[in-house]
Amino acid sequence: MQAIDQIINSAAKTHYMSGGIQPCPIVFRGPNGFAAGVAAQHSQDYSAWYGSIPGLKVVAPWSAEDAKGLLKAAIRDPNPVVVLENELLYGQTFPMSDAALKNDFVIPFGKAKIERPGKDLTIVTLSRNVGLSLTAAEELKSKYGVDAEVINLRSVKPLDVEAIVKSVKKTRRMMCVSSDFPAFGVGSEIIALTCEYAFDYLDAPPVRVTGAEVPTPYAQKLEELSFPQVDTIVNHAAKLLRV
Predict the structure, then answer these.
(1) Closest residue by Cα to residue 193 from 183, 212, 206, 204
(2) pTM of this structure
(3) CA 219 – CA 45 distance, rounded (Å)
């Protein structure tokens, strides 16, 4: 927050206010979302806040491939990009494909990735919640026989609306899992867009699993209750599917 004016009022607006003459090639990267025991001022998700600002591109990697490909794309972009990283992923290892190991590997903005194909439910998620959603999808399969498709957004802005709509047309049910606040959040925007472009394909109202409307508690158990967990995702999905 100490440098928010420079990000919002300087970096995001320079290209526009110069009439397209002056680009602003800068990358802002750092921790975002819930961490572990760092309390209210250091454990919060502002994906939607940055995503609402014209002039900013916003990405949120989950895997090592995401981190490499998106950061390289951000460096190459002529205007400001915000790279939001969950610090709980810093110590986690991921496999890397042969393509991702090459020097020229770049992930274009606005291209989501289907991490797990499915036919009964679309789970749209980002950052660390991708891993939680994949675990929840396996539980849904083993407990209820539900085959959930998990979409890793990777890019908050631009948003891959096409991938979301295509999946919803197939599964006819949608859930968004994000760790930001419920009011005016990423989930709100995704559900709004889904209703705008795929309403006739929905067999049930879309649902969202988000962080709680509360400053993040320091106490571990309260902290855990403040953000999406695997069992929360499973329970909401079960209600949505009526299983």
Answers:
(1) 206
(2) 0.95
(3) 18
Angle (CA) 173-117-182 rounded to 5° is 45
**What are the C-alpha distances in Å from 195 to residues 160, 168, 172?**
15, 10, 12
Q: Are residues 135 and 234 in the same domain?
A: yes
Q: Is residue 106 part of a domain?
A: no
Alpha carbon dihedral 154, 159, 165, 170, in 10-degree steps, equals 0
The answer to the question of residue 94 being in a domain is: no
The domain containing residue 213 runs over which residues? 113-241
Place of tokens 């502002």: 46
Residue 227 falls inside a structural domain: yes
Task: State the CATH number of the domain containing residue 157.
Answer: 3.40.50.920
Query: Which segments of 19-78 does DSSP mark as H helices, in order?
Result: 47-51, 64-76
Q: What is the pLDDT of residues 187-227, one digit of tens each?
A: 999 999 999 999 999 999 999 999 999 999 999 889 889 99
